[in-house]
Structures are given as structure tokens and as C-alpha cells.
Amino acid sequence: MMPARSNVLGGGVSNNKVKYSRLAADDDGYIDLQFKKSPPKVPYKAIALATFLFLIGSLLIIIGALLLAGSIKVEHPDRTIPVLIIGILVFLPGFYHLRIAYYASKGYRGYSYDDIPDFGD
């Protein structure tokens, strides 16, 4: 058998002084402020790293292409292909993240700074 309810809350405080009001019929419990987006945080360190990767990759691709074409004479021509491959592997992530940063800064739809990793800043 359950005890009867009383008008006393847990610590012996009476709830007779509590005033309640009805919610409006069209109120769904949400407020507009909770859906407002905060301004985007620009990941400057990640953009600087992407710029560095882009520049180093571009330099390695140019050097690798010149080595492969024979414009720069080398003693061991079999070492030209790895320079080109490393240049491409360094260039691609730098270019990708710089492209996202550029489109996000211009405000293109579907691009935001949230797509660039910020390394836990």
C-alpha cells in the first residue's frame, strides 16, 4: 500500500507558494536562440600547415619534374621518381585544405572551417 501524497516536498518545504502558468498552445518548447549558429572559428595553425605543405609539395614536384626531364643533371637518375612521388604526397593534403579554407572564407555553400582539422587547439 502506498502512502498518500502530501503538499510537502523532500525537505519539509511546503509547495503551496509555487505559482504555475500554462504554456501557450503554440509553444513547442524551443527558443530561437538555441538554433543560432555561432561565428566560425578560423583554424589559423591548420591553414598555416596546409600552406607549408602546399609550398613544399609544389617545390618538390617542380624539382622532380626538372630531374626527370634532365634539366638538372644527376648522378643517379633512379632517385628522381621518389622526389616526384613525395612531392605529390605532400602537395595533395595542402592543396585540399587550402581549397576548403578559401571556399569557406568566400562563403560558398557546403564549405566551412569545421571541415579543416584544428589539431585540438
From TrEMBL:
> Which Gene Ontology terms of cellular component type are present?
autophagosome; early endosome; Golgi apparatus; late endosome; membrane; recycling endosome; synaptic vesicle
Q: Which keywords fit this entry according to its UniProt record?
A: Cytoplasmic vesicle, Endosome, Golgi apparatus, Membrane, Synapse, Transmembrane, Transmembrane helix
Q: Note the InterPro entries from the entry.
A: TMEM230, TMEM_230/134
Q: What is its main location?
A: cytoplasm
Q: Which residues form the signal peptide?
A: none
Q: How does it sit in the membrane?
A: Multi-pass membrane protein
Domain of life of the source: Eukaryota
Question: Where does it localize?
Answer: Cytoplasmic vesicle, Autophagosome; Cytoplasmic vesicle, Secretory vesicle, Synaptic vesicle; Early endosome; Golgi apparatus, trans-Golgi network
Biological process GO terms, please?
Answer: synaptic vesicle transport
Q: Which residues cross the membrane?
A: 46-69, 81-102
Q: Which family does it belong to?
A: Belongs to the TMEM134/TMEM230 family.
PANTHER family in the record, alphabetically? Answer: C20ORF30 PROTEIN, TRANSMEMBRANE PROTEIN 230
Its annotated function is as follows: Involved in trafficking and recycling of synaptic vesicles.
Please give the name of this protein: Transmembrane protein 230
**UniProt gene name:** tmem230a
